[in-house]
Amino acid sequence: MKRSTIQKSVVLAALGLYSIGILSSCSTQTSQAETTANTEEATPKELPVIQAELTDAPLVPAPIARKHAAKVVVNLEVKEVVKRLADGVDYTFWTFGGSVPGKFIRIRQHDEVEFHLMNHPDSKNPHNIDLHAVTGPGGGAASTFTAPGHETVFNFKALNPGLYVYHCATAPVGMHIANGMYGLILVEPEEGLPAVDKEYYVMQGDFYTKGDFGDPGLQPFDMQKALNENPSYVVFNGSVGALTGDKALTAKVGEKVRLFVGNGGPNMISSFHVIGEIFDKVYTEGGSKANENIQTTLVPAGGAAITEFKTDVPGNYVLVDHSIFRAFNKGALGMLKVEGGDEKNIYSGQILDKIYQPEGSTLQEMPTASAPKAAVATNKEMRLELGKTLYAQNCQACHQAEGQGIKGAFPPLAKSDFLNTDVNRAIGVVAHGLEGQIKVNGELYNSTMPKLKLSDEEIANVLTFVMNNWGNKGGEVTPAQVDKAKKSFKH
Ligand SMILES: [Cu+2]
Description:
alpha/beta; globular; Cytochrome Bc1 Complex, Chain D, domain 2; Immunoglobulin-like; 23 strands; 24% helix
């Protein structure tokens, strides 16, 4: 604003309309006039004071209805807390508001924010905050260094609309971010965002633990892994399974869904994708321009994106970082459950599954003659050996390396009561796939296991391998048993 005042003065001076004396007294007036102009006609002299509503992910505060600027008071408390990172795995998170990601803050362009940062007396470290929505030194970090048990306050004016990341910027910065110190602040444009039916808050982050993915217990931070940019976990909303099972996001067929997507990093860039959906609109990098018809959008570390789509077909849509090992092996997987009537003209479901018989005499010779013969096990040892490879190729992506599954998404095969009480039923599941609700070790799963293209021999081998590992009851499954069980399977 100062600069524009000066520019105006220079223009006026150049026009020769004012003497130097008049100019200096005039320039203060101009700057006052501009203050009012920038906060709009409808704004009263004293801005109304509003307490900001803050929410935990995946919820976001209600859209802003007011048509004028306000003074918005934000109270954000830093807490260092031990919480679940994955099943059986705990981590000491440093948080803005008690969870990862930090509280969602929603304000309007031209608002004046009075920002209070409190650091809980039980904290072991000082913290501060750098909001990317702030124009000023350190995005607020320079004014908010806060010792445990202290509170700091600063004001800022929201000049630019957009979706912005905030994070802690206290040294060692990487470690504070790696421990979960990030969140999103939305600065709505004056005219607001177009109305939608559902809005959700999803934020990715990478975590570095001494143990590998799934190693149980309270896991300490591993600086070397962080330096190597080799995360043990990449997750949405602070833990494996934060958005699956009964915590899945929900929508009805025909609804417009808006996802406020952030990436805290500290290291990884997210290739954000929703399996089975196309984003009708993406405000790339959280800015004001919308791109249309996007499959995967890049969300940089310390960046954000707003994605919008209409749900057309019921089913489970899987949110992933499409750097896909992160999704299936490091936790970056969430779910959106869409309920409502089928739209068979948009998606039919499977309408055919039959043997493909090539026509023409030359082609007909080809298949069996030249196809390499699949290995056949002649004893249990061989079955276990072949089954191990089959498991890694066909099952591990979902049921995980140790058969532990992913809570809420993929049931465990390790110590699975479903499997151990009825092996023939398990054969049926592997042979035909499975849909609908089942209970495994007391947990409900309502998802889909695809029909895999495996021969009786291969099913026998992979299930023999599963039955003899991870605390299952042992035994051997033969191709003859598979053939029989397959035929009698009903679900
Ligand atoms: Cu911090």
